[in-house]
């Protein structure tokens, strides 16, 4: 009797071990990629993460922080892929950072929906953010103080705005600087006198995009080149992409990935 019981125990243990051996590789094969960086890229990265998991079963976690944060995280090995809405600096390239374009975005100048101003020139935007134009009546609007809203130094959106609109100069020290596009949008929504700048993906009923030089900030105008303030969006890796990071990056550039990208942005 003891022998029979012992044999049954051994058989059961063997079956359990075989099942565990068969199941374990399935769990082990589900990779988890980590992404961080640009808050411009963040929303579409989440959509791409969902699409990639549906295709491969592999998880992709996404956090924000700004383009500079994503680049630093990628170089430090804290994430597999950084997200950036600005070009790499020479110092970052020399440290091994590699950029891969996967989309294009238009930078938009936004105001509170109750603001009557519809159009500004590039020069007027520059004068506003240098603190030279301080009241909306100076550009055809109501007699209301202009409240400057912008991004922090870690932001790729700020770097692009500084390059294209401010010609390399810093925004006024009176600018209320925020760490994300969403926070800029909320600040502009909350103040009738506010002006801000965000990715085109963040323009909705809460804010209104201004025409610049008479040209609307639409996808069509950005794609045609009529709207001038268009920038590439990047995946950042330390060294050339490889392994699961390369598989993910390559997939975002396929027709399936680009279909998701074009819900928010322009194709690469």
Q: Helices and strands in order, then pairings?
A:
Layout: H1 2-28, E1 32-37, H2 42-56, E2 59-65, H3 67-76, E3 81-84, H4 90-94, E4 97-111, E5 119-120, H5 122-129, E6 147-151, H6 156-164, E7 176-178, H7 181-189, E8 194-199, E9 208-209, E10 211-212, H8 219-224, E11 230-238, H9 243-252, H10 255-261, E12 266-267
Parallel strand pairs: 1-2, 1-3, 5-10, 6-7, 6-8
Antiparallel strand pairs: 3-11, 4-8, 4-9, 4-11, 4-12
Polypeptide structure, described:
With 268 residues, this protein is an alpha/beta fold. It folds into 2 domains: 111 residues, Periplasmic binding protein-like II (D-Maltodextrin-Binding Protein, domain 2), CATH 3.40.190.10; 119 residues, D-Maltodextrin-Binding Protein, domain 2, CATH 3.40.190.10. Helices cover 40% and strands 24% of the residues. It has 10 helices and 12 strands. Strands 1, 2, 3, 4, 6, 7, 8, 9, 11 and 12 form a 10-stranded mixed sheet that branches. Strands 5-10 form a two-stranded parallel sheet. The chain is elongated. The N terminus is likely disordered.
Keywords for this structure?
2 domains, 268 residues, two-stranded parallel ribbon, alpha/beta, D-Maltodextrin-Binding Protein, domain 2, ten-stranded mixed β-sheet, disordered N terminus, elongated
């Amino acid at each position: 009797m003891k022998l029979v019981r012992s044999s049954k125990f051994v058989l059961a243990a063997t079956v359990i071990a075989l099942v565990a051996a068969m199941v374990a590789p399935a769990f082990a094969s589900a990779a988890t990629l980590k992404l961080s960086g640009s808050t411009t890229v963040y929303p579409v990265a989440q959509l791409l993460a969902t699409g990639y998991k549906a295709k491969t079963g592999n998880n992709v976690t996404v956090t924000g922080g700004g383009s500079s944060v994503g680049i630093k995280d990628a170089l430090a090995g804290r994430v597999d892929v950084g997200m950036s809405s600005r070009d790499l600096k020479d110092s970052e390239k020399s440290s091994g950072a590699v950029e891969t374009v996967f989309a294009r975005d238009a930078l938009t100048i936004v105001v509170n929906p109750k603001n009557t101003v519809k159009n500004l020139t590039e020069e007027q935007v520059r004068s506003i953010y240098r603190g030279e134009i301080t009241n909306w009546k100076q550009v055809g609007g109501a007699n209301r103080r202009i409240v400057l809203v912008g991004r922090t130094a870690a932001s790729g959106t700020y770097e692009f705005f500084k390059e294209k609109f401010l010609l390399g100069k810093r925004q006024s020290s009176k600018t209320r600087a925020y760490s994300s596009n969403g926070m800029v949008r909320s600040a502009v929504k909350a103040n009738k006198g506010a002006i801000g700048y965000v990715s085109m993906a963040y323009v909705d009923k809460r804010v209104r995009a201004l025409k610049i030089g008479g040209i609307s900030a639409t996808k069509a105008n950005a794609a045609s080149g009529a709207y001038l303030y268009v920038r590439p969006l990047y995946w950042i890796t330390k060294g050339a992409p490889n392994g699961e990071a390369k598989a993910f990056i390559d997939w975002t550039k396929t027709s399936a990935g680009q279909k998701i990208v074009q819900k928010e942005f322009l194709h690469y």
